[in-house]
Amino acid sequence: MRPPISEVDRARLQRRVSFGIGYVFDLSATEGEPLPELGRPAPEQAPRELAEHLDRYCRDHRITVEVRELPEGLSGYYRRDGDHVVLDAAISPGERLAVLAHELAHREDPELIAAHVAGNRRYYAHNRPDCEAIAEAAAHTISARFGHDITGHAAGYIAGWIRGDIDRFKQLHERVGHVTRQLVPPDHLDRVLDAARTASVRTGRHTKTAGRAR
């Protein structure tokens, strides 16, 4: 037989259960910016500076961009052989720029470049979740820098590919940064945005002068 449990040991083994106080708010009672709605397409229009930057990037690197009708569910794709981007004609101009940034991110992904040089044609198929998450994260970052908010689509797209594995996505952070810097060097971004602000100020001054002359 087991010896009886002493009162001291019984106290040590006793399980203590307690409850804390929590607060639950209705969304309508909160303040601040609305939460992003996942699954939404990109805004129909995009900043002119973003369009000009991506167009210039394609011209400077001799990347062919074609816009035509694609099968339903396919917004665009990139072919490294021929350095060719195809975009769906049915999507809005704003979506098309977001897709172009995504496909250019595939082009600049260092792992995809290394696999292409090594002749490894199966790399993308075997690592598709990482490649897609990186391309969309880079596209989101680039678009955001020019004031084009594609969070509603990008967040859900990235989460779907990495299956909610935040730790895995953190491991891809350096690769996303490399791609982003390739497509939009920080010093270049500053020059583009400064030029846009200057043009905006000049336009505003001209409008005010015209208004006073009436």
How does this structure look, described?
The termini are far apart. This protein has helices at 7-13, 48-60, 93-108, 110-117, 123-126, 128-145, 151-162, 166-171, 173-183, 186-213; strands at 64-68, 76-79, 84-88. It has 214 residues and is mainly alpha-helical. β2 and β3 (84-88) form a beta hairpin. The chain has a three-stranded mixed beta sheet, covered by helices on one side. Helices cover 57% and strands 7% of the residues. The chain has one domain (48-199). The protein has ten helices and three strands; from the N terminus they run ααβββαααααααα.
Overall radius of gyration: 26 Å
Number of strands: 3
Order of helices and strands: HHEEEHHHHHHHH
Strand content: 5-15%
Largest sheet: 3 strands, mixed
Count of alpha/pi helices: 10
Report the uncertain regions: 17-21, 23-27, 205-214
**How many separate domains?**
1
Shape: globular
Q: Helix amount, in percent? A: 55-70%
Structural class by SSE content: mainly alpha
Which characteristics define this entry?
214 residues, mainly alpha, 10 helices, 3 strands, 57% helix, disordered C terminus
Fold topology:
Elements: H1 7-13, H2 48-60, E1 64-68, E2 76-79, E3 84-88, H3 93-108, H4 110-117, H5 123-126, H6 128-145, H7 151-162, H8 166-171, H9 173-183, H10 186-213
Parallel strand pairs: 1-3
Antiparallel strand pairs: 2-3
Helix pairs in contact: 3-6, 3-9, 6-7, 6-9
